[in-house]
Amino acid sequence: MAQTANWRKLFFIIYVGQAFSLLSSSAVQFSIIWWITMETGSAMALAIASIIGLLPQAVIGLFAGVWIDRFNRKTIMIIADSAVAVSSLVLGVLFFIGIKSIIVVYIVLFIRALGETFHKPALQAAIPQLVPPQELTKAGGFGQMINSAYSLVGPMIGALLMSVTTLQYAMIVDVLGAALAVSTLSFVKIPKQVIGQRSKLSFIQDIKQGISAFKSNRALLRLTIPMLISTIIFVPLGTLLPLMVKEYFNGTAWHNGIVQTLFSCGMLIAAMVIGITGGLKKQFLMISISTGLLGICAFVGGFLPAQLFWVFCIVVFVMGTTGMGFNIPFTSYIQRTVPTVNLGKVISLVTSVMSFAAPVGMFMQVLYQKLSE
């Protein structure tokens, strides 16, 4: 049961603590992707990096959901943050001693994605244990607002780090951010989730229970289909933005940082509006409008000449706002309508489905580029 009395205080402590990790991760992720861009200049290399980043969620996401529902979600988040910090530390050390292999970078991206596979669903599943059901959309907006605020600064820090130093020093920033996040989370008491019959179920039975909970929610099932199609179409656009900035607009790390920052700024403003107002009362309509607007922005951005980089920046900003318009109400709908005993499994299942769709879109994009050459 959510704690209605002091949920705001606990909610913000959790998100502010996690924002330290988000800030460092955003800067480091920018640095890694820009390093790959500069080292290879290859769309295929970026596509591989994107697929590796999505692979853990796609392959083991549902299995992770079972553990998230069976064990303490706070502990899972702490372990996930710690694993990411260790992987960043190892990569930094390897770069310091001269081992600068893109294979090693891919391995670290995989470990970072593995940590997120457990961390993000665990956090989303823990929120309804704190927040009253009627406040979940606003809470989601405030949470995304905090995340977006730090994501806004992250690419700028990443661009600064890659301009004045090398990748190994950027990895140290990630270690510090994760340490702060773990320290903050350690002091927050999250109510334990109801175990119900989970202890009597086998692992496979628990997975089947999560799938059944998803299939029985007809509205969620219907809503997931257009979200799946949108993921296939639009994920490649975001992944290849650094290459587009570099190759098409002849940009530098700073230009890429501006694009990433504007995208995050759009997310921040949209999340702030939703956090304050709760968004449209008809939340499925809000999802539809946001998805349509994203398509219009992608169409306009695709036809801009190389001289209109600043117009492209405006388009990217608007694209950032649209993401919050369907992500926040979609997540809050899951949190409201799925029992907490199955919430981790359902969130992980939906995320896994989206993660499978993203590589499909990436391969279609790369194949199209190869055929166009």
Annotation keywords:
Growth Hormone, Chain: A; 83% helix; mainly alpha; 373 residues; 0% strand
H-E string: HHHHHHHHHHHHH
Shape call: globular
Quaternary state of this entry equals single chain
CATH architecture group name: Up-down Bundle
Determine the strand fraction and express it as a percent band.
under 5%
Number of domains: 1
What is CATH's topology name? Growth Hormone, Chain: A
Radius of gyration: 20 Å
Low-confidence spans: pLDDT under 50, at least 5 residues? Answer: none
Structure description:
The chain has 373 residues and is mainly alpha-helical. The protein has one domain (7-193, 213-372): MFS general substrate transporter like domains (Growth Hormone, Chain: A). Helix content is 83%, strand content 0%. It has 13 helices and no strands. It has helices spanning 7-40, 43-70, 73-96, 102-126, 136-164, 167-186, 203-216, 218-239, 241-248, 253-277, 283-302, 309-337, 340-372. Helix 1 packs parallel to helix 5 (136-164). The radius of gyration is 20 Å and the shape is globular.
Write a compact overview of the structure shown:
83% of the residues lie in helices and 0% in strands. It is mainly alpha-helical. The protein has one domain (7-193, 213-372): MFS general substrate transporter like domains (Growth Hormone, Chain: A).
Task: Note the topology.
Blueprint: H1 7-40, H2 43-70, H3 73-96, H4 102-126, H5 136-164, H6 167-186, H7 203-216, H8 218-239, H9 241-248, H10 253-277, H11 283-302, H12 309-337, H13 340-372
Helix pairs in contact: 1-2, 1-5, 1-6, 2-4, 2-7, 2-13, 3-4, 3-6, 4-13, 5-10, 5-12, 7-13, 8-11, 8-13, 9-10, 10-12, 11-12
